[in-house]
Amino acid sequence: MKSSKTLTRVRISDIVIMLIVGVTMIICLVPFLHIIAISLSSKQEIMSDRVTIFPRGFDWHAYEIVFQDSRMLWSMGLTIVLTVTFTVISMLMSIFAAYPLTKENLRGRSFFMMLIVFTMFFSGGLIPEYLLVKQLGLLDNLFSLILPGMISAFNLIILRTFFLTIPASLEESAHLDGSSHIGTLIRIVLPLSMPVLATLSLFYAVTRWNGFMDALFYITNSELYPIQLKLYQVVMNSMVTDLTAQEGAAQMDVIPEGIKAASIMFATAPILIVYPWLQRYFVSGIMIGAVKG
């Protein structure tokens, strides 16, 4: 009787979890499918407000306009380079900061950890950060989009916690064989840390790819606009176009909503393509990195 009741409870809990996951997926997917449908629908169907989650009057014209915009393509290429550079530098800095903090013989280790945790709760704010970037001469410079957010305290703590789960005997054996700390890190620690490295790389890449507030503050040269800031301009220009259309101005060949939706998909597609390759590391990397610490 007890076993049957236990099985019943387990089945009910599984059903509840499945329902929660299903509802969450629907909530997340419906707006996304709606954007895709608008980007692929004709202007007449969009204007009549008949587009839901399926395209109506299939039309590629909005994507043609986006791909013919050389400034949009330049921003995309620039953002890809910026994201890759930011991710590589951030991961290197996080690794070189997290690994020494796992050593018990490191003097001041607790003090350094306290400083790192302190930055998660308190910061100088936007104005001091802007003044610092200005004093460093980084305005209208891509390094203003890299240096301020180069290390995340949250990601650093996760990485350090993961390193602590690696058996110390492996490192001791490497040291007995004459390996240096850098050699042990490269040959022993990093190969065993691929799940968390892939997960944190995804975190850093998504953070940089989706960031536009720092570019809005620090970048005024349109040649240095990342894709999200370019997308922000498209959305704002679409709002202006809507207002002029309401005042009787000439209509565009493709209404702003279609261009805006196509631009959103253009800016989102690269992350959607990369994510499935790293998804298998995502859960294991976060769970293992959160167990000990």
Mind explaining what this structure looks like?
This protein is an all-alpha fold. Helices cover 73% and strands 0% of the residues. The chain is built from 13 helices and no strands. The chain is globular, with a radius of gyration of 25 Å. The chain starts with a helix and ends with a helix. Residues 242-254 and 289-293 have low confidence and may be disordered.
Kindly state the number of beta strands.
Answer: 0
H/E topology pattern: HHHHHHHHHHHHH
Major sheet? none
Please indicate the percent range of residues in DSSP E strands (runs of 2 or more). Answer: under 5%
- How helix-rich are the residues, as a percent range? over 70%
Q: Please, what is the average pLDDT?
A: 80
Task: Name the structural class.
Answer: mainly alpha
Round the Cα radius of gyration to an integer and report it.
25 Å
Shape: globular
Protein name: Carbohydrate ABC transporter permease
Keywords: Cell membrane, Membrane, Transmembrane, Transmembrane helix, Transport
InterPro entries: MetI-like (IPR000515), MetI-like_sf (IPR035906)
Membrane topology: Multi-pass membrane protein
